[in-house]
User: What shape does this take?
Amino acid sequence: MKKYVLAMLLAGSVVLEGCAVGSAPSVEGVNLTDGASDENVEQGNDTEAGDDAASADDTAAEDSAVTDESVDGDYEQFTKDYTDDIKTKVTEITASSNSLTDELTSIVALYDEYDSLSTNAPDQTAMNEVCGWGTVVWKEECLSLLGRMETSDPAGYQDVKSEYDNWEKYVPAMAQKMSDTYADGSIYPVIYSYNTAMRYKRYAYILASSLADIQGEVTFSFPDSTMCGYYGDYSSDSYLIITEGMESGSYDIVIHIDDTKEIRGWGSVDENSDGSEVIAFTSDDATVEGTIDCFALGATFYVSASDGSIVSQEESYDFTFKY
Assistant: This one.
């Protein structure tokens, strides 16, 4: 989805044109009776031309009003407050789903529904207006899952809720770091909102997994998975960021170590000898190469080649937790 949004945005700015006014019809010659004077001919031409011009102006004004009304009506969907609609739909999904896996699958579809408002927006202003509704979808799902955890496990709920509240304080910082590449561009609000929504989505998956354990749903599984994410303790100085790159199958990567070392680069999926998948990493300046092994709850960066200026060959760095 992010690649689709970026492709649309970077292809060029979409400018919403003003409503076109219909051109006035041409004035055809007047069919005169035999014996009419030249003065009458001239007077008749002037009168009918004036009437036709006035009629054309009226028609153009009516067409413009209808077109403007249509545009205004279409534009309302990009300024509407969808909060209550989203809350209602999330409640309906949780009530009608047969399992937590089915529930998450339906919430993914609901997110896509509201995300399409952004991808189908007529201009950048409208896109920026609606890009945050996807975050509301996943935030409501998190709150819904927390509510059910309070009912299912009252003893453990307070710790879970406390951790959620603490994590939520860091969401803006995580989203900002993940969107940093686009900080100076007009598309930044869209990218920032996307990365915010994906943090809530990831946490919803964590909460759903915990609730599945409490409820004994042994067949629970995530409806989708990705190597993209924020790896490491969100409150620490070390983190690994993986986001989708512009090229198909590529990733943009930031490796930040103890606030003293940072490596930026890119990578693509490679296969180990045992068949497992890793990301083959190369720094932007080509001085560092390595592999990134992603797990359900973390990732490890292994340095296979380096000039030694930032990291050394055969060093490895672990980033525990994934958000």
In short: Residues 7-71 have pLDDT under 50 and may be disordered. The chain has eight helices and eight strands.
